[in-house]
Each structure stands twice: as structure tokens, then as C-alpha cells.
Amino acid sequence: MNEKTPLKKQIFSIPNILGYFRILLIPIIIWEYVTAQSLQDYRIAAMIVAVSGITDFLDGFIARKFDMVTQLGKVVDPIADKLTQGGILFALSFRFPWIIALIILFVIKEGYMGAMGVLMMRKGKMLDGAKWFGKICTAVLYAVMFILILIPDISMKAADALIVLCGGLMILSLILYISIYRKLQIM
């Protein structure tokens, strides 16, 4: 597939269908977590998050391996990622008060990334994919969210430490992306 592939074929490509599926899982994850009353309920929510993560890996793998990368997929995948992360953070905020600070950082970081992405595209420049520090930040965020869902009786000190770790990585990632975007603007 390429840019000239008809939109209908792009819409129904396997990687894009997996992206839509991840978006559909978001309200299910939120509902399962927010209404959980037993350890089993929290584990079900964690398993749904795991399914979302596996389909996230698979959509990219399939797209690259079978030459199914589409322009639509380049939009759907990051949207599904950010909506999933935001949805899970929202759900966790009902139990862990410090998640609110993480949500604020998340919105600032992703808002900046989105705005700069649009600005750079208008100038004919683009960031060539996520950087290593962005990938580490995202991986740690998913791991922490998964742990907080899977272990509902985690101590608040441990939960707060994990949340602070994520916040620190988000701030570091944002600072490093700001530096990269400044260099792109100069070029």
C-alpha cells in the first residue's frame, strides 16, 4: 500500500482495523476499572489493557512486515495511542489523586507535540518518528498504568513513586522534544 491506495482499501486494512479496535476498547477499559469491586474485576481490566497493548504492537508489526503502511494508519495509530493513554489515566484518577498531575503533564506534552507537528508540516518539515526517549516514556507509562490496574491494593507510597517516575520521564521527554523542534525550526 502507498499514498495512492484507495481510501476504502486503507480504511479496511488489518492494521487500521486493529487501531479502531483499540479505540473501541477504551470505554470498556474505563468501565471495567471504575466499576471494579473485586480483585478479579481489576484483573479483567488489566487483561483488556494487555489486549490493547498487544494489538498496538501487532498493528505496527503487520503494517511494516506486509507493506500495509497507510497514510490513514499514520493518523489512526497515534490517535488510538493517545486516547488509550488518556482514557486509562482518567480511570486511574478515581483511585490515585496524583494521577491528575500526570494527566496535566500528559495534556501539555501531547498538546505541544501535536501543535508542533502541525506547525512543522506546514513548513514542509516532519519529525521522523518517535525518538528513543519518547518511546521509553510511553513504555514506562503503560507499564505503570498496567501495574496500578493489576495491583489495586498497591500502597499509596508505591503508587505515588510510580506516578512521580512517569511525571519525571514526561517532563524529560518534553524538554528533549522542545530541543529537537527548536533545531528543526532553525534549519
Kindly describe this structure.
The protein is mainly alpha-helical and 187 residues long. It folds into 2 domains: 1-92; 97-187, no CATH class. It is 80% helix and 0% strand. The chain contains 7 helices and no strands. Helix 2 (14-34) packs antiparallel against helix 3 (39-65).
Low-confidence stretches: none
Structural class, by secondary structure, is: mainly alpha
Largest sheet: none
Compute the average pLDDT.
92
- How many individual β-strands? 0
Report the β-strand fraction as a percent range.
under 5%
Number of H/I helices: 7
N to C succession of SSEs: HHHHHHH
- The termini sit apart by 31 Å
Helicity range = over 70%
Radius of gyration computed on alpha carbons: 18 Å
* Number of structural domains: 2
Global outline = flat
Topology, please?
Layout: H1 7-11, H2 14-34, H3 39-65, H4 71-92, H5 99-122, H6 132-150, H7 156-186
Structure in a nutshell:
With 187 residues, this protein is mainly alpha-helical. The protein has helices at 7-11, 14-34, 39-65, 71-92, 99-122, 132-150, 156-186. The chain is 80% helix and 0% strand.
